[in-house]
Hints:
Blueprint: H1 2-30, H2 42-57, H3 60-64, H4 67-70, E1 74-76, H5 89-116, H6 120-141, H7 163-180, H8 198-215, H9 221-232, E2 246-248, H10 258-263, E3 269-271, H11 273-281, H12 287-290, H13 311-317, H14 327-330, E4 336-339, H15 341-353, H16 361-375, H17 380-387, H18 399-410, H19 415-425, H20 450-455, H21 457-467
Antiparallel strand pairs: 1-3, 2-4
Helix pairs in contact: 2-5, 2-6, 5-6, 6-7, 6-8, 7-8, 8-9, 8-15, 15-16, 15-18, 16-18, 18-19
Protein name: Starch-binding associating with outer membrane
InterPro entries: SusD-like_2, TPR-like_helical_dom_sf
Organism: Pseudarcicella hirudinis
Amino acid sequence: MKNKNILIKSLFTLTIAGFLSGCQSELEKINQNPNEATQAQPDYLLANSIKSNADVILGSDAYMETTTLFIQHWAKIQYTDVDKYTVSLTNIQNIWTNLYAQGLNDYAEIIKIGKNTNNPNYQAVGLILQSWSFQLLTDLYGDIPYSQALKIGESITPKYDAQKDVYLGLLNDLKKASDLIDLNGNPIKGDLVYNGSLAKWKKFANSLRLRIALRIADRDPQTAKTVIAELAANRSALIAGNDEIAQLIYLSSPNQNPVAKDRETRDDYRVSKSVIDKLIELKDPRLPVFANKTVDPTPNSYVGVTNGLPADSASKLGLSRTSKLGDYFTAPSSPAVFLSYSEVLFNLAEAAQRGFIADDAATLYKQAITASLRQFKVSEGDITTYLAQPSIAYNASNYKKSIGDQKWLALFSQGQEAFAEFRRLDYPALKPAYAGVLSGQFPVRLTYPTGEQALNLNNYKAAVANQGADKLTTKLWFDVN
């Protein structure tokens, strides 16, 4: 009897388990949305990830409230604390979170889809954009999670890779991406940068390798020379004109340029005095592109604001007697530039001066300035006049000054890249913020977000031990001077 009861209970349990399992299965079916995709569409994913990263590089966190002020392209006329290097912890956290949790995760999924669908072109484009995102992160923070960063199934607390290893890894990743591209293979959709032109994506990958190779040139000149010599052997494989610039051209609201959106409700930024004074000094025809004339008449028509003024001093300058950002940059469709033709030429000029390639540095330098002026729609006559000035002549004995000054102007809308090159070349010769809080020093990195200390403490500590104190003034590996 006892055995019979056990048997009955067992059968009852199995019956109930089967019933519940069936119910669960039916509930899962009922709860499925027949109109919702169960697998990410690569074209939608690619378009969204490109837009989200473009919004980061022109947004408040990584651009308006940090790098564009550090590099003295813009200045604050109100709410000036951030212009004195009191950096918001929220800004720091947002950059990290948005690049890792949004862009990089999307690019990893695009790479995966490319592999699973036997479409190496999606795989390549995902890898190129992933490399660009990692480059932005390491340029800003230094040592970062890289090799384990996107392997959430293996580690939710990824280690920080040394900056040198990140750059070397990115050089390899970009070479792989360039080699993966099949110009005659399956097309890609959702491409807001090159509208599906795989040849241009290949050029972007190679031009990004050129950028990173120069980034390590002061630390690892042999690797830099090897990579650059390989790239320069086939110039047609690099971005070769302003029509090949890697950029996202925005649309009208609600998909407008983040700067345009910001200007709809705020008026607390002005063009820095450092930029306007340099443009006036050089009789630079980009002045009316970069800045607007003052609303109230002033002797020079263009008046910049000194970076890092106390709030009351900035206010006394007057909103109508200082120059706002030029209309080119506040237009809804103004582009987010990832990598320009002028930058490629400046990089080749520096490579030639360093002896990495057998070209004339002065010629490439002039070509780079010309490309920048054309990018900003300067007339050919004004370009000729500008280049003829002795003040623009290339100085081989101090090439970092010649290239650094002009590159700083050419990168006017690219705060993160301008900040990296300012640290690497040590030009232009800027003065720190007037009332800066860093004892007369510039910021040379961003501190790690507080979220890392809470969620990845051991690896955070290891990174700080390797790199140095977690301060704005701790130099990164690539910044040797």
